[in-house]
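Possible race condition, two jobs.
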Amino acid sequence: MSEKPSWMDTVEKMASQAATEVGCLLYDLEFVGAGKGRTLRVFIDREDGNVTIDDCSNVSKGLNLLLDADEELIPGGAYNLEVSTPGLDRHLNKPWHFQKVIGKKVYIKTSKALESVGVTDKKWKSAKTVEQVLDAADESEIKFVVDDVEIKIPYGMIDKAKLVFEMTKGQKK
């Protein structure tokens, strides 16, 4: 994962403060684009997962006030601010993101074959992707158990991870 600029730490603290003030938590943020197309994306969540449009609007207003107070914080001039939920297929970046989705199906892409973390099962040792139900997550790694094969992947080896949205029987399309 790419290194973030030092000013993003300050923006992250501000976004966390703005989210907390309205009863939400900061899930993640990203700064993308170039020139006039630059966008600061802030993703918020609630413990119960029920983020409203008003929550997004209130966090946006609160964060805007904080960012406007220090116009020099984000280098390069104008940018757009977007506040939303992480979505149904949310990206998983931090240990608590993984801990929140234990028991759900996730997609993981690793930087090395699973053999490098001790997986010897013929089916899995050369794999670099896993799409299975997450069994456990702690501060250093995640764990899957597939057909009695235990697969432990340290966070440092994960290139990409996201929740896999699955419709359950009886849900409307």
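Job #2 (started ~2 s after job #1):
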Amino acid sequence: MATEFTPWMSLLGGVLIGLAATLLMALHGRIAGMTGILTGVIPPVAEDSVWRIAFLIGAIAAPAVFVSFGGTIDFAVPVSTAALVIGGLIVGVGVFFGSGCTSGHGVCGMARVSPRSIAATIVFMATTFITVFVTRHLVGT
């Protein structure tokens, strides 16, 4: 499986994520961790669910707007549904025990120089490197 290198799209995406995280912190004093935002809109619903719902709608609508302006999103899932479910469960356990997700720790926590977030991000990245190496070079998918 080849991975496409898209530096300009990656840069733009990173800038937009950083801008959204900065505005959320500046305007609401909240961290843009997607897991924390999502858990505030499922029962029991958080008191501040309005901004959470708006944030999630924006995260879902942004790709649709991109495509409506002629952009394309090449997306392929090279694994089975069972592998996706197992991977999702593993990520869910990691998010629970890590007290946050990659966006909360990796984007916002590291920007605040949080030692816990730096450690969590190192673990995320090391696990990602190992997983990609194993699946691409040892298992052969």
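Residues 34 and 103 are 6 Å apart (CA to CA).
Logs attached separately.
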